[in-house]
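Ticket #413: bound-state structure for pyridoxal-5'-phosphate.
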Amino acid sequence: MAMPNDADIAALDAADPLAGFHDAFSLPAGVIYLCGNSLGPPPRDAAARLAQVTTEQWGAHLVRGWTEDDWIGLPGRVGDKIARLIGADPGEVAIADSTSVNLFKLLAAAGGLRPGRTTILSQADNFPTDLYVAQGLADVSGDRWQLRTVAADAIADAIDEECAVVMLSHVDYRTGALFDMSALTQMAHAKGALVLWDVAHSTGAVPVDLNGAAADFAVGCGYKYLNGGPGAPAFLFVARRHQEAARSPLSGWMGHAAPFEFVPDYRPAEGITRFLCGTPVVLGIAGLEAGLDVTLAADLASLRTKSQSLGDLFIARVEELCADGDLTLASPRAAAARGSQVCLTHPNGYAVMQVLIERGVIGDFRAPDIMRFGFAPLYLRYAEAAEAARTLADVLAARAWDQPKYHQRAAVT
Ligand SMILES: Cc1ncc(COP(=O)(O)O)c(C=O)c1O
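RESOLUTION: The complex was predicted; output attached.
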């Protein structure tokens, strides 16, 4: 394929069926935002929605909001909206807690369904919180469960009869590599193991079909491609066939069958509600719903096609324009094997990213040397992907990163 020139890129933007969504978000002028895989930008109506819940619900109804505004039903009602994005049925998804806390609950629930099996198997380079939570669960379980990690490409062969649950991230947070959810779930089931998928880096940008893949459990973040706002609540999925037998170890009152009977003994609610723990974060869920509603208005197949084309265009432009021999592609080149991000390594990747951010191209950095560029298809333009590559080429050609101030590490990278 011939390299697209500026006119071709303008034509791609003009023909983009998702182009209208750019204006649904508030993005500062002069910024090319390639960090939606970490924190999505605010939808234009997020502030109004939060203000509405604050004044018309909280302010007007006070504590009656729990029933008059059905705050108590929010985790399930908004969970059903997420279900439409991840191939789940109504009643299989709830909004709750953080992804880390949900991992703990669902790992323990999955392990409990496989008595006699002792291993939680995961990829060695899984997102750290997934591994930390599994380690913590193993610790509190005494000797019941251990975490075993192997390289991502060795997972399939490592699933054995000891394995209770396989815990995998659908998209690798460092490289963007995409697991075959259906094939791995099948392999795990063939060995009698259950699978818990972390779909934080796919939901909203990469098609996820949990029931199509016969997945057992899943967790994901609200603040990435769902644009739910900083610290937005997370979601959890439990396949309906497991809901009756599975138990959450965090048996809080919101997961009780009758929380307002205030009885002393725990009795789990029916369905997905038993995986709730404490009071729903009403304002947080309102922000998340504002983001979700924008994504739900988009055609999901177009999101994937555009995300792949944006990544392909960026890679092609980087390879055409960047002469720096230290720059390497860390993501799969084939779009079908990639999530919605492109990762490049460079020995001075941290400093290079600081210069890019200073010039308005906002990506992020993951140790030891990875620059991540997230291509959120909902609001990015092809011209921005091309411009980001051009800016990177300029920074590298001029060695603009080679100043001490760009090497000072911030607390959050
Ligand atoms: C794959 C993955 N899982 C989990 C998390 C963390 O989730 P939380 O901080 O909401 O617990 C992240 C955060 O970036 C992530 O990338």
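RESOLUTION NOTES: The chain has a mean pLDDT of 96.
TICKET STATUS: resolved
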